[in-house]
């Protein structure tokens, strides 16, 4: 009978490899075979496509042997994103639409039984894969998905609401059923990002806690991880929830990558555009939920927090396997998930904010209530956090409990906007000097960019020897000192900057 080719894309991690939907109609016993390593969701497309074509008033070749191949055959395919290209392939192979006019177009969308198009996940990742291709490729997507994909600059995205809206655009030459000019069912979307929303909770709500606020500012300016230690109700969660509002503005490329991961997980909304999100998984989550996994591999909370904040409250209560899985992403900024069938890599450049009590009962050293824990219980509780993991967290800060009088009578603190302005200036100094945040400095670049004067170098060497810091701990203290110098507008790291950085690595060191 006929053969038709329709282009689409699969999802493999954050990549969107090309898939050719090949449809062949032949004489023989009526059947509908779908091959090409298709998941159950894809195989169910046979019934959705059959009903959608019939209910839309189109002809389904039920007296033919239909073979649909999703090439390449060794690439796993999942979700209902191939419904639309399969339907178009059947229509093209049966001569109801012009197969030649499909060249240069790609399609993705799930079909309802009535022919309506439903959104698919990963639309932004798909649009990013098309970015920069020559010649340019035009993409047709359902409502909801098309708006996401149109965020990519120079993307050529068309939105279609119904199968018939797509069919009308590819009818054979000479057909008079052209759509109306103002038909909203078929529309090209211009790459106009949604409006950036206002900031969230303000740091001015937090009274007192000057040391913790200073640590938040340093962490935001240099991209450092932060551990908050204090009794219940001292304000640890309140501080962490306001941290994202201190971070420097996102670039468009950072926003696109962050939004693409959220789209891959089906969590992207317009309100998240150009906003640094705060992911707050519960401490009962598994290691796979935290770092990603499954088959096919899916992003975890650390990837969903890419370019944002990962807040882990009740830090020692997380499973040991989940916490230890954070060690590599904290260093590399990415996570690689390997399975027998496939391998996927997701970015994971997040800022870790962790909060914990100093002991199981929570009141050790609070001065407000007596601690009921024995020294062995305290050591066992803090020992849930391994030395290598703590070594990768740059700032360790104590958040004491404030007396009621100080809490009620204290004036409002400094607003997030004022702190964010200083953070942005320090961050810009670091980018102008080395092209990346201070936390990402490594090796010779760290030695060169830190610019320690002689007195500061001797002071750091003495401190590292007396406090038994590891090489990683020493380098991380140096990175923090570089950030403190940037906040002060200093070209060189002085003794004062190193001395302040030392104070942020000593909270748990006596008991862990």
UniProtKB/TrEMBL annotation:
Gene3D superfamilies: 3.30.230.10, P-loop containing nucleotide triphosphate hydrolases (3.40.50.300). Coiled coil: none annotated. Residues 173-203 are annotated as: Disordered. SUPFAM superfamilies: P-loop containing nucleoside triphosphate hydrolases, Ribosomal protein S5 domain 2-like. InterPro entries: AAA+_ATPase, CHLI-like, MCM_dom, Mg_chelat-rel, Mg_chelat-rel_C, Mg_chelatse_chII-like_cat_dom, P-loop_NTPase, Ribosomal_Su5_D2-typ_SF. Residues 300-395 form the MCM C-terminal AAA(+) ATPase domain. Keywords: ATP-binding, Nucleotide-binding. The keyword Chaperone does not apply. Belongs to the Mg-chelatase subunits D/I family. ComM subfamily. This is YifB family Mg chelatase-like AAA ATPase.
